[in-house]
Amino acid sequence: MSFPQHEPSASTARIERSHPDELICGLVSISDRASGGVYEDQGIPALKTWLQGALTTPVRFVERLIPDEAPGISATLTELADTVGCDLILTTGGTGPSRRDVTPEATLAVGTKEMPGFGEQMRQISLRFVPTAILSRQVAVIRERGTTDADGATLIINLPGQPKAIRETLEGLRDADQALVAAGIFAAVPYCIQLTGGPYIETDPAVCKAFRPKTAVRPA
Ligand SMILES: Nc1ncnc2c1ncn2[C@@H]1O[C@H](COP(=O)(O)OP(=O)(O)OP(=O)(O)O)[C@@H](O)[C@H]1O
Ligand SMILES: Nc1nc2c(c(=O)[nH]1)N[C@H]1C(S)=C(S)[C@@H](COP(=O)(O)O)O[C@H]1N2
């Protein structure tokens, strides 16, 4: 099935789904140098390219390129979650130990629930690529709106800043025979969004096989 592609939105207005399964997805690149024009941002293009290849249900992107400033990061996440109504926000950058790396603190500040499994799994995957993976302090949270599922929620996940790390952590690692050695974190994202009242999203299993318990699979 193919769905219409929407231009990414830069507006702060609420986005209404054009299809019940449409994922409203915020992409936030956090980099002093990319946001300051020192180099071209590769974070948002890498996130978008991977998601467009992985998702088989429709998606609408809302993009932000911002510096490593905690108040600005928290404000951007809050705006994308509460005003725009994103189901999912992926950030890239600012998770390391440097003084300016404050993405995890700014993310925890806006969460209502911490989801530690995402960070744990990302570090496990990344350790198979680089020994410095333990330097990434990436976290994930859910920001719940209102008091019921109908009010909505946003899953926010920090990814490392290296553009190549985006695919590595989302998709995981395969061996020479294409067997999965370490499951990418995106395999758990569709069910998490479903459990928090969001759309039913599906993926191409050749890229990333989404896992749901049988009882949660929607009949064809
Ligand atoms: N948005 C980006 N676009 C392109 N390359 C990036 C981006 N973010 C990070 N990188 C690359 O990954 C490396 C490590 O990322 P890290 O987030 O630690 O950057 P940094 O040294 O904190 O600098 P900055 O915040 O200015 O990107 C950077 O040195 C850069 O080469
Ligand atoms: N998959 C993967 N994870 C990775 C890396 C990488 O190259 N690939 N780089 C590591 C390094 S060197 C650092 S310092 C941390 C934090 O990066 P950030 O500050 O860009 O978020 O991510 C780590 N995680």
UniProtKB/TrEMBL annotation:
Q: Which UniProt keywords apply?
A: ATP-binding, Molybdenum cofactor biosynthesis, Nucleotide-binding, Nucleotidyltransferase, Transferase
Reactions this protein catalyses: molybdopterin + ATP + H(+) = adenylyl-molybdopterin + diphosphate
For biological process, the GO terms are: Mo-molybdopterin cofactor biosynthetic process
In terms of InterPro entries, this protein maps to:
MoaB/Mog-like_dom_sf, MoaB/Mog_dom, MoCF_biosynth_CS, MPT_Adenylyltrnsfr/MoaC-Rel
Q: Where does the record place the MoaB/Mog domain?
A: 26-179
What would you give as a GO molecular function for this chain, any one? molybdopterin adenylyltransferase activity
What Enzyme Commission number(s) apply to this enzyme? 2.7.7.75
- Main EC class of this protein? transferase
> Which pathway, metabolic or otherwise, does it act in?
Cofactor biosynthesis; molybdopterin biosynthesis
Q: What is the protein's known function?
A: Catalyzes the adenylation of molybdopterin as part of the biosynthesis of the molybdenum-cofactor.
Q: Which family does it belong to?
A: Belongs to the MoaB/Mog family.
Specify the protein name. Molybdopterin adenylyltransferase
Q: Which organism is it from?
A: Pigmentiphaga litoralis
